[in-house]
Amino acid sequence: MKALLQRVSRASVEVDAKPVGSIDTGLLVLLGLEQGDSLANGRRLLDKLLDYRVFPDAQERMNLSVRDVSGGVLLVSQFTLAASTRKGLRPSFSAAMPPAEAEVLYVQLLDLLRELHPVVSAGVFGADMQVSLTNDGPVTFLLEVAPD
C-alpha cells in the first residue's frame, strides 16, 4: 500500500465539473492499493499519516502532524501508484489490486479515517477526477506499508 502525502494550503477534487471534496490546510493523500493489502495494513498506514510530522513548528522545523495543526485530509484513490516503472516505456499494473476489491478496501479505509480524524474529505473511487492543489513547501512524501 502506498500513500503519496502532499502538504497543502488547499486542495479539491471535481468529478464532471462538480466539486466532490475539498480541504484547506492539511494533507492531500493519493492512495495506491496493491494486491495483498488489507484493512490491517491500511490501519497502520492511516495511523502513520495522521501522526507523520510534516507541518512546521514555531522554529520552522517539521515537528507537527496533521492532527497537531487540526488540518484536513483529502483522500483520493490512485491506482497508478501501484504501477511498476522499472522496465520499458509503459507502466505495468500487475501489482495493483483488482478494482472491485480495491473499492471495498478504499471505502473501509475512508470510513476508518473518518473515525480517526475530524476533517476528512474524499474523491470518488474509479471516477475521472480533476484534482487541484496548492502544495505548501512543496512538501511531498511517499509512505509505504507492506502487506501482512
TrEMBL record:
<comment type="subunit">
    <text>Homodimer.</text>
</comment>
<protein>
    <recommendedName>
        <fullName>D-aminoacyl-tRNA deacylase</fullName>
        <ecNumber>3.1.1.96</ecNumber>
        <ecNumber>3.1.1.-</ecNumber>
    </recommendedName>
</protein>
<dbReference type="InterPro" id="IPR023509">
    <property type="entry name" value="DTD-like_sf"/>
</dbReference>
<feature type="short sequence motif" description="Gly-cisPro motif, important for rejection of L-amino acids">
    <location>
        <begin position="137"/>
        <end position="138"/>
    </location>
</feature>
<keyword id="KW-0820">tRNA-binding</keyword>
<comment type="similarity">
    <text>Belongs to the DTD family.</text>
</comment>
<comment type="function">
    <text>An aminoacyl-tRNA editing enzyme that deacylates mischarged D-aminoacyl-tRNAs. Also deacylates mischarged glycyl-tRNA(Ala), protecting cells against glycine mischarging by AlaRS. Acts via tRNA-based rather than protein-based catalysis; rejects L-amino acids rather than detecting D-amino acids in the active site. By recycling D-aminoacyl-tRNA to D-amino acids and free tRNA molecules, this enzyme counteracts the toxicity associated with the formation of D-aminoacyl-tRNA entities in vivo and helps enforce protein L-homochirality.</text>
</comment>
<keyword id="KW-0378">Hydrolase</keyword>
<keyword id="KW-0694">RNA-binding</keyword>
<dbReference type="Pfam" id="PF02580">
    <property type="entry name" value="Tyr_Deacylase"/>
</dbReference>
<dbReference type="InterPro" id="IPR003732">
    <property type="entry name" value="Daa-tRNA_deacyls_DTD"/>
</dbReference>
<dbReference type="GO" id="GO:0051499">
    <property type="term" value="F:D-aminoacyl-tRNA deacylase activity"/>
</dbReference>
<keyword id="KW-0963">Cytoplasm</keyword>
